[in-house]
Design brief:
The chain is α+β, with helices and mostly antiparallel strands. It has two helices and three strands; from the N terminus they run H-E-E-E-H. Helices cover 37% and strands 22% of the residues.
Length: 63
C-alpha cells in the first residue's frame, strides 16, 4: 500500500476496518484514529483516484 488512506480503504473493502461507522453510497464513514475534536470522522471514497477525489484535491490545492 502506498499510503494510510489506501490501506484503510482496502481494509474497509474486506470488512476489516474497525473504525467504520457506516457504509454510504459515496464511501465509508469512519471515526478518526486521532480525535483532535470529539467525534472527528472522515469519508473514505472507494475510488481514491476517481473523478470526485481528483476534483477535491484540485480544489484544496488551489486554496
Amino acid at each position: 500500500m502506498s499510503n494510510l488512506t489506501e490501506e484503510r480503504v482496502a481494509l474497509a473493502r474486506r470488512g476489516e476496518n474497525p473504525f467504520i461507522i457506516s457504509r454510504l453510497r459515496s464511501g465509508w464513514l469512519v471515526i478518526g484514529d486521532v480525535q483532535p475534536l470529539p467525534g472527528y470522522s472522515l469519508l473514505f471514497s472507494p475510488e481514491q483516484d476517481g473523478p470526485f477525489i481528483a476534483r477535491m484535491r484540485h480544489y484544496f490545492a488551489a486554496r
